[in-house]
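Example for tutorial group B:
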């Protein structure tokens, strides 16, 4: 657990706990809405519930952190480990990062990223990487200070 001082009350970065589901779900829904997955394009409940259960399954390589301030969850980070063809240690993919609107610009996202780095080191990952949408300029200003751009372009095809 990492604690930062953000505004009046300290912010704790910690692993998600089973009792966090209702508050985590509010953040999860906000994250998905940010990327246009809401209304008729919302994720099915089955995906949300399966994602949630994976955080607590020792056989899954998926992990979740939350930022908590004054008993309220104000941010989340989800990351997973996977093998690589070019190194022995696993890679850590930071898949989801989100902070509540009121928490933005206060160091919460940076602290979540720092804690992902610490957890990835402890899990012996060789690197941490993530992607964001090219229009997410606010986030990229932070990302440019905590990581290097890889120069790679992402291609994908829905199946």
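The residue assignment follows.
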């Amino acid at each position: 657990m990492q604690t930062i001082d953000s505004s009046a009350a300290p912010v704790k970065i910690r692993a998600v706990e089973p009792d966090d589901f209702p508050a985590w779900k509010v953040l999860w829904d906000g994250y998905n809405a940010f990327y246009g997955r809401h209304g008729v394009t919302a994720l099915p409940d089955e995906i949300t519930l399966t994602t949630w259960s994976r955080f607590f399954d020792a056989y899954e390589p998926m992990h979740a952190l939350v930022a908590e301030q004054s008993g309220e969850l104000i941010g989340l980070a989800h990351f997973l480990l996977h093998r690589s063809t070019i190194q022995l240690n696993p890679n850590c993919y930071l898949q989801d990062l989100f902070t509540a609107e009121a928490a933005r610009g206060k160091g919460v996202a940076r602290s979540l990223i720092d804690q992902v780095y610490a957890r990835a080191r402890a899990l012996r990952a060789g690197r941490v990487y993530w992607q964001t949408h090219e229009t997410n300029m606010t986030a990229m200003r932070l990302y440019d200070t905590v990581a290097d751009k890889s120069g790679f372009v992402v291609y994908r095809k829905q199946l």
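The first strand starts at residue 2 and ends at 5. Compare this with the pattern of hydrophobic and polar residues in the output above.
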